Amino acid sequence: MGSDQVLGVGMVGYAFMGAAHSQAWRTAGRFFDLPLQPDMAVLCGRNAEATAAAAQRMGWRTTETDWKALLGRDDVQLVDVCTPGDTHAEIAIAALEAGKHVLCEKPLANTVDEARAMVAAAERAQAKGVRSMVGFNYRRVPAIALARKLVEEGRIGQVRHVRAQYLQDWIVDPEFPLVWRLQAERAGSGALGDIGAHIVDMAQFVTGDLLTNVTAMTETFITERPLPGASSGLTASGSDERGPVTVDDAALFIGRFASGAVASFEATRFATGRKNAIRLEINGSAGSLAFDFEAMNELSFYDGTEDPETAGFRRILVTEPTHPYAGAWWPPGHLLGYEHSFTHEVVDLLRDLAAGTDPTPSFADGLQVQLVLDAVVRSAQSGSWHPIPS
Ligand SMILES: NC(=O)c1ccc[n+]([C@@H]2O[C@H](COP(=O)([O-])OP(=O)(O)OC[C@H]3O[C@@H](n4cnc5c(N)ncnc54)[C@H](O)[C@@H]3O)[C@@H](O)[C@H]2O)c1
Predict the structure, then answer these.
(1) pLDDT computed for residue 389 by the predictor
(2) Which domain holds residue 36?
(3) Phi/psi at 197 (nearest 5 deg)?
(4) Is 341 part of any domain?
(5) Is the bond leading into 244 cis (omega within 30 degrees of zero)?
């Protein structure tokens, strides 16, 4: 039986992530037995009319047009930050200082300094029982949670290799406009912070290990694009004026984990034909795991302890009631989708808030990913390349 205790939520931003988080807040208590029921109290946007329409569509009770108004509202106990990276630090720090729990989208911030300030605010707030979480939702895909469990149980032995890719293709067209994700002052970085951050977090989460150093290259293939027209989402149209692209289109790096495992990472928006291919392969001394988000209900597992005669990668359909999160949904084989990872994120958050425990990934985890991203940028800039003599 769910509890009658209520947590008032105020969400800032109502486009892509706003829609995904709204879906999560709407469904969490309908499928999971929760100790705290979310109340979708306030949606905040800057345009009153558009915000009201979005609130109606997505199920929010009231609206505000300035995020600062959320901080003074008694019916808001948690602020959900679904805005671009340049706003995360200011909103999250103010919310924590006002005694509101915070769920903040990834990457935690645009810079290491901002992320450090957010961690300091989170630590001060935590001392008063106010908690925070960063939205690395892919941790909560059942197949990824199962991969973590198998590594933790030692089923693949000692991890030797991590191979991670995040491949998209939505800006292959040079006429795709200069949306905020292509502007350094709004997004911090390009493919690196937007999608590279996810594979860094996933690789560290699944292995239970941290990267200790990296060497990297980044590339911007299209250096100038049309300025955006009226809308600025992933399917925006452009105007006649053009402006410079100030972020990376692709980032490639190799790294080393504390355990000695070696890793390669590739994050790109130029992988023509790949839409949201998040691939993770981990090779251990006793087995391997492989995942591709474009088949997100599956996890491939090679058990190196089996008889070689019949050993081979097996495809686990991660929809059994015993699999992480899956039991709350449908019968085995009735597949889950993208949105479920966000529902799982808020379910875990609500359970932690009710239990008085710290949610993960924490702001400190977000800072650690930011430090990896920063090291990638520095390495790419220093360009320690060794030419091959001809
Ligand atoms: N977890 C994921 O898989 C995932 C996926 C996409 C985006 N994100 C992250 O979510 C965040 C938002 O990205 P998005 O794709 O939803 O962007 P978006 O452009 O679709 O939406 C941004 C929203 O923020 C609003 N906004 C911007 N500045 C604001 C301000 N000062 N006050 C109030 N509202 C403001 C915009 O009006 C819009 O509603 C980013 O940090 C992004 O990296 C995470």
Answers:
(1) 75
(2) 6-137
(3) -60, -40
(4) no
(5) no
pLDDT at residue 343 in the model: 98
Quick one: pLDDT at residue 385?
Answer: 67
Buried b (16+ CB within 10 A) or exposed e, 228-244: beeebeeebebeeeeee
Q: What is the mean pLDDT of each run of 10 residues along the chain (390 residues)?
A: 84 98 98 98 98 98 98 98 98 98 98 98 98 98 98 98 98 96 96 98 98 96 91 64 97 96 98 98 98 98 98 98 98 98 98 98 98 95 78
238: in domain: yes
Distance (angstroms) between ligand 1 centre and the Cα of 161 equals 33
**CA 102 – ligand 1 centroid, Å:** 15
| CA 84 to centroid of ligand 1, rounded, Å | 4
Pocket of ligand 1 contains residue 342 by CB under 6 Å: no
Residue 364 included in any domain: no
Q: Residue 332 is part of a domain; what is its CATH number?
A: 3.30.360.10
How would you classify residue 219: left for phi > 0, otherwise alpha for psi between -120 and 50, otherwise beta?
beta
46 and 157 housed in the same domain? no
Cα 187 from Cα 233, distance rounded (Å): 13
Atom of ligand 1 minimally distant from the CA of 17: 16
Residue 387's pLDDT is 73
In the reported structure, the alpha carbon of residue 164 is separated from the centroid of ligand 1 by a whole-number distance in angstroms of 25
Question: pTM of the full predicted structure?
Answer: 0.96
Distance 171 CA to ligand 1 centre (A): 18
Residues 111 and 260 placed together within one structural domain of the fold: no
Residue 1 pLDDT: 47
Task: Determine if ligand 1 sits within 6 Å of the CB of residue 137.
Answer: yes
Q: Are residues 155 and 274 in the same domain?
A: yes
Decide: 43 in ligand 1 pocket, CB within 6 A. no
Only one residue has tokens 């425990």, namely: 357
SS3 104: strand
Q: Which of 16, 276, 349 to mutate to test the pocket of ligand 1 (most atoms within 8 A of CB)?
A: 16
Helices 197-207 and 363-382: crossing angle in degrees, nearest 10, is: 120
Return the pLDDT at 234.
58
